[in-house]
Amino acid sequence: MRKLLTGGAIIIAVILALVGLKTYLVQAQDNQQHSDKVLDFYNWGDYIDPDLLVKFTKETGYQVNYNTFDSNEAMFTKIKQGGTSYDLTVPSDYTVNKMIQANLLEPLDYSRLVGMDNYYPRLLNQTFDPHNRYSIPYFWGTLGILYNKKVVSTSSVAHWNNLWDSKFKDQILLVDSARDILGMTLISQDKSMNDRSTADLAAAQGKLTSLMPNVKAIVADELKMYMAQGEANIGITYSGEAAQAMAKNPDLAYQVPSEGSNEWFDNFVIPRNARHKDAAYAFINFMNQPQNAAQNAKYIGYATPNQRAYELLPQSVQNNRQFYPSQVTLDKLEVYQNLGQKWTEKYNDAFLEFKMTKR
């Protein structure tokens, strides 16, 4: 009887094992199918309305794995290394061109895109990606001067050269960006923000070093928080960051100096090694919808390239020339070009040497 029970137990165990294996395989298949319904999204920090990610998942079934970076360089390096696969990321203009040259991007299939006619034609077909073969604009804006209008008059910061006035000693916050800070200095010397002259860059570095007595700190994303809290009277930053600070402190104002500045673009791109390209296209199409783009613009505070979305924004936003500049201002803006490794390193080295003079 004992031998019979043992044999029966073995038979039962085998049956249970087979049932368990079948259950495991079904679950594994379900998990694999579930894993295919994901979007691995690599974006700047706090650069999308979280409610839109929830809405996208609800409408499409795609779960969003959201990871962030804090610089174009960090994002580029991670994508190039290829250890982690992302389906969608958001490089700035010159980095799009850099990624194209490094063969890191998937050419866009326009047959899978909807809503492209919602975009302002002026904001398409930029030099960093002719005909938008690889990228679609996400937000755009300017580099300018954020200031406390209770302390600083508009006319006293109408030009980049005004920043060197000794009355602003220890009052200026600079965004921690070589291209932007050396760029504004180059413009103050009637040079291009894309200058590739050793003499011009050396002159800009020298002039920038003379600004240091007026510099309170060189900071990153926290600049908007410090300005909102009244920690400094002037900040060199981006229009969207300025908008967020102004929303928290009505004493702040923003303007682009009359001699010109940078017009930047952040853009959706699909990395060549993306595993969930259907999800990437679904998300781009989702964000192309005017109501979603408008909601995102109101949350982030940056200028939308989607004309239909712009038309849904409050009149006070549409008419705000600080963030949707006049044609006169637009005509004086420059888009960053990819300087290449040699000149990027020269700019970075010059900026690092400048920062080292801070005491």
Automatic annotation (TrEMBL):
Alphabetically ordered keywords of this record: Periplasm, Signal, Transport
Compartments where located: Periplasm
A Pfam family it matches: SBP_bac_8
InterPro entries tied to this protein: SBP, Sperm_putr-bd
GO cellular component: periplasmic space
One function term, GO molecular function aspect: polyamine binding
Domain of life of the native organism: Bacteria
GO biological process: polyamine transport
CDD domains: PBP2_PotD_PotF_like_2
Binding positions (spermidine): 94
Entry-linked PANTHER family: SPERMIDINE/PUTRESCINE-BINDING PERIPLASMIC PROTEIN (PTHR30222), SPERMIDINE_PUTRESCINE-BINDING PERIPLASMIC PROTEIN (PTHR30222:SF17)
Name used for this protein in its record: Spermidine/putrescine-binding protein
Native organism taxonomy: Bacteria, Bacillati, Bacillota, Bacilli, Lactobacillales
